[in-house]
Amino acid sequence: MRITFARVVRSEWTKLHSLRSTWLTLGTVLLLAVGLAGAIGYGVRRSVQSGDPAPTTADAVGTAFLPMDFLMLVIGILGVLQITGEYGSGTIRATLSAVPRRWPVLAAKAVALTGVTVPVLTVGCLAAFLVCQAALGPDGAGLGDSGVPGAIVGAAGSAALIGLLGLGIGAMLRHTAGAITALVVLLMVVPALLGPVLPGEREEAVLKYVPTLAGQAMYALDGAGGPFDTLSPGPAAAVLVGWAGLLLLGGVAVLRRRDG
Amino acid sequence: MIEVQALTKRYGGTLAVDELSFSVTPGQVTGFLGPNGAGKSTTMRMIVGLDRPTAGTVTVAGRPYRDHPAPLCQVGTLLDAAAHRGRSARSHLLALAQTHGIGRRRVDEVLETVGLTAVADRRAGGFSLGMGQRLGIAAALLGDPAVVILDEPVNGLDPDGVLWLRNLLKGLAAEGRTVLVSSHLMSEMAVTAEHLVVIGRGRLLADTTVAELIARVAVGSVLVRSPHATELGDLLTAHGAALSPVGPGVFHAAGLGVERIGDLALAGGLAIHELTPRRASLEEAYMELTREAVEYR
């Protein structure tokens, strides 16, 4: 009997799936993502019927993933709670006594979280796409259209990465309320405020590296929909991986340095 | 075996633990005593690496805690009985067990040991203080550790629970394990522990057995009964004793030993009917020790 990384991952997996709130959160997210995608698709179809121009394929895909911003936030909060919940309840002391080297705990949490979010989000994003296209009717895109499978994977991946980013913020700040506030500021307030604050040209250069916009770029076809340039999906994914990695490393540093 | 050497912990400007050195040996229950805020929990947290010492070292079985490949099998700890409110007792223990590859059967065993089998699948949020404490003790026993460290385990237990815990601790010690239990209540430690480590304001006050501690802090006085109580009293007072009357012909004399009182009475030609040295109670000895610690500052 000794500690191995695989065992710590298994332990974190048990912690994650033994909380009812994990499944409630994921279930609610899925229902809303699929339901909203369907409702928005239906709304667009009605607009087209009353004379608006028909959506392009890129627009049709964008419509399906309009609720993604909200989804990202909720998955980010799930990541935050995965660790701040331990600090809040005091379980962290038992956890860190069991794994005194500490960094494997955060790494294992990241693996377990990804193991839950990626399959759930992939299914959810696929369902949201299909339901939305069905609601759009004749103007809907198909799974065979160019770039569509990539966009679905990108949508699922972007939310999963925001989950890891939330875990990193949670590990750095350790308090639920503070960490959720920081997450909301980073995901929603920063992009909204950076626009007015930065001068015109720099705004375009900086904004596309913000997590929310990098995430959106991962599932947009032709950089569609945005008022300005976005990254293409590959570099956007790299940027978001960078954000998540940076915050997780910050989390490891705090975990190692500070008293449990 | 736990060895604490010149352990020091400073939080900002306050010195929580001040060059503390002691060792805890296997085969007996060692009580870790001190008033609230004496540094007991901080010391225990440093033993298992939760807090980083400002200076000094602490080893368990010859190595720092974090260097053990299977720390739960070496040291079991109850620091505060905290499980996530939304998780069942069984899942809480299973998650801890899985980090070491400890099986489900062992989880069931420790649940049985602490008497939580019936509520194992209930969410810990609904647990009473005592049930939470039992869950924490179960977690400490999970790895069948050679060293058991429990911080204020009596808190929240009902009288039955206190008795159960006392027997559990004695049983663990009898199996040859090292058992360190903190408390701010001397009365509880007096019946559970054989060895005592007493600290106050982060400093070591005593590292001794229960009997030695009583002997060491001589708050004792002598009960004197004599038909010539008044004259004898005057005589003793003249030789430096402090008297307090108990009843007609009976008083307590502090400051002189039994032998000296007897000799003085003989020299004065005064009969004595009783001379009983009154030993300090453990509680008094403890109060005396910790009171001095406060006065040092």
Explain the overall architecture.
The complex is a heterodimer of chains A (260) and B (297). Chain A is mostly helical and 260 residues long. Chain A has one domain. Chain A contains eleven helices and no strands. The model of chain A has no long low-confidence stretch (mean pLDDT 92). Chain B has 297 residues and is of the alpha/beta class. Helices cover 37% and strands 27% of the residues of chain B. In chain B, strand 1 and strand 2 form a beta hairpin. In chain B, helix 4 crosses helix 5 and helix 8 crosses helix 11. Chain B is elongated. At the A-B interface, helix 1, helix 4 and helix 5 of A face helix 2 and helix 3 of B.
Largest sheet of chain A: none
- Please give the most extensive interface between any two protein chains, plus how many residues each contributes: A-B, 31 and 38 residues
Report the principal-axis shape of chain A: globular
Separate helix tally of chain B: 11
Strand content of chain B: 25-35%
Salient structural properties:
heterodimer; A: 260 residues; mainly alpha; 11 helices; B: 297 residues; alpha/beta; 37% helix
Task: Break the fold down into its secondary structure elements and pairings.
The complex is a heterodimer of chains A (260) and B (297).
Chain A: H1 5-17, H2 20-49, H3 57-64, H4 68-89, H5 91-98, H6 103-136, H7 148-173, H8 176-197, H9 200-207, H10 211-217, H11 233-257
Helix pairs in contact in A: 1-6, 2-4, 2-6, 3-6, 4-5, 4-6, 4-7, 4-8, 6-7, 7-8, 7-10, 7-11, 10-11
Chain B: E1 2-11, E2 14-24, E3 29-33, H1 40-47, E4 55-60, H2 71-74, E5 75-78, H3 89-98, H4 104-113, H5 129-141, E6 147-151, H6 159-174, E7 178-183, H7 186-192, E8 195-200, E9 203-209, H8 210-216, E10 221-225, H9 229-238, E11 242-247, E12 250-254, H10 258-268, E13 274-278, H11 282-296
Parallel strand pairs in B: 3-7, 3-8, 5-6, 6-7
Antiparallel strand pairs in B: 1-2, 1-4, 8-9, 10-12, 10-13, 11-12
Helix pairs in contact in B: 3-4, 4-5, 8-11
